[in-house]
Amino acid sequence: MKNTLIKSVFALALACCGFACTGNYLEINSNPYEVSEEEMQRKGYAVASYLNAIFGTIISPDVNTTQFTDALLGGTQGGYLADSQNGWKTTISNYNPTNDWTRVFMYSDRIIPVLYSNLLKLEGISEDPIVRSIAKIAKVCAMNRVTDAYGPIPYSEIGVSGKIQVPYDTQADVYRQMFDELDEAIASLTAHSNEAITASTDPVYGGSAEKWCKFANSMKLRLAMRVVYTDFTSSEGKTPRQLAEEAVANPIGVIASNADIAKLPSTAFGKDGNPLRAACLYNQPDGSVTGGDTHAAADIICYMNGYDDPRREKYFIKSEWEDIDYVGLRRGIEIPSLNTIGRKYSGVKFENDAETPLYWMNAAEVAFLKAEAKAVFDMNMGAGTGRDFYEEGVRLSFEQWGATGVEQYLAGTNPPQTYIDPNGGVNSDKDNSLSRLGVAWDDNASKLEMQERIITQKWIANWRLGNEAWADYRRTGFPRLLPATANRSSVVNSKLGARRMPYPTEERTSNAENYAKAVEMLGGSDNMATRIWWDCNPEVK
User: Fold this and answer.
1) What is the pTM of this model?
2) Residue 48: φ, ψ to 5°
């Protein structure tokens, strides 16, 4: 969408926001996106500005923020991306990161302060039920990523006193409030489903209440499956099963078409364009086209090579290794020299280069959520079997990426490729760590094998949504990933990988009492090995 008003709003917001991406907590009354009242003569302009600032807290248009949250954290731990900057000695992938790498979700001045300050301002100028519902949905999307990174976080108390150094909520209580907020938004949007707000105010869905309602129901389904192994009940006493079934049964329904994918378009970006793309290209060697600080991970390319996946040319830049089209760099290793070796591995391809959108949720993911709910947990997902939803997810992904050959792909029985490192075999997979399953559905498979197939295909379809992939990996143990070979931690198990991020070290002094209570809520040490509340699947060990 090329809209002059929205572009001017974002240009102004970006110009007002020259802060370090990992700054300390701010008082939320200080809004880095704020513009003068004279420049906001019209209410619609103000609503557009505040909504778009809120949207930018889900996956930030700021390159440095997104590098930390979606390349170095979610991208690596989700098995999509590999660090390729050999100057880095303390990384999340090697489980010895420094505080400035792990604190970003909580302490970046581009996420929590921007989110809550703009929520308050929006509430002060608009009583429109659609606007308010959109803001609630975006808030849940942004804060879900934060709580899933750490566990207990400040949530209910943020904004009450004007500060965010406040008491933490248990993660179960955070989820309880998120379901409440989604339900409030869904009820309102269902009632107003035939209405819309001004299209230029909303670059995601053009103001459509119906599309936002589908997204809210899809988020509800995603979160219900996230907590499926817990004994969770909502504020209204509903179980994960009831919440999941309720989301699908809503009269507006969930996302079922690629036309309804939730994504932030390029109108939100600054001069560097798509921030994840810019992060991957940082420090790209002269003459190379594969990338700089970040390359494609060995894990996903091994799966897609073994499956002879036609989407590879859409996802990856061909390698510089002779006679090898697609080969990824292994994560959690002694990183080779970027200028001589690292540059040879396949890069991350962005379909529209700098103008590639930031995806929040794909239609394929929703189909796979329904497949898992039906096939593994026997939930009522409407008309269709687990196989139906599984194959629908694959077809939707092929359609999304413009790939052909989906029927042949769905019949495939070959397993993923065993990783052979073209750099003299230095980091080859000697333990044959990846899956032994092919793509083709098997009605006689065990529940665990069905889940592995579903999550693996969901993972491939969710390409670049690293934090979602990391959450699924922790929740289910799938997809099977290559363990780190240069584990620098004394507590993280290489096979299990990082289970969470430690809290910002500043919290121990600036918010000491609340920090201590948060660690009690966590139920373990404040380190990367402690499991968060919903990470309780007995099969993951």
Assistant:
1) 0.94
2) -60, -45
